[in-house]
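>> received
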Amino acid sequence: MHMREDSLGAEYIPATVDDYHLKELKNYQERLDKVNAMSDEEIVNERSEELNYLINLKKETLAKMSVDKERLIGILNKVETWTPPTESHEELKTFMMKQIVETIDWDCDPKYSEEALVKSKDEIQHLNADIVRREMIDKIKWNINYHTEGHEKQIKRVEEANKWVEDLFKSLEA
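>> returned
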C-alpha cells in the first residue's frame, strides 16, 4: 500500500513507521511539563483566554445562524409562491421546500450554541486553578495514551504488512 504511487518497475522498499505519533507524544509531554510548572494564575489566565475565544466564537456563530435563517426563510417564501411550469415540476417544489425547512431546522437551530455560550460564561466566572489544572493534565494524559497506543498499533501494522509482502515474495521464488 505504501508504494502505490511508485512506478511499476520500482524496487520494493519495506514500509516504515512514520513519526507522527512520536512527535505528538513529545509535544504532549512538553505540554504536561509546562502545565505542571505553571502558577495558579497562569493556569486560570490560559483557561480564561480559551473561554473568551469560545464565547466570541459562539456569539459569531449565533449571529451567522440568524442571518442564514432569515435568508433561508426568504428563499422558502419565494419557493412557496413559485408556480411550477408543469405538474412534473411540483415534485421539485415539494423537494426544495423540504430541503430548505430541514436546513433551517438543522443548521439554524441556536440551541447548542446558546447552551455552550451559557456554559462558557458560567465557567469563566467560577474558574478554579486546581480543577482547571487537573482537567488539563487529564486531557494531556489521555492524548499521551492515545498516541502511545497509536504508535504501537502502527508498528504492528507495518510489521504485519512487511511480513505479508515478504511471504508473498518467498512464495513466488518457490
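>> The mean pLDDT is 95.
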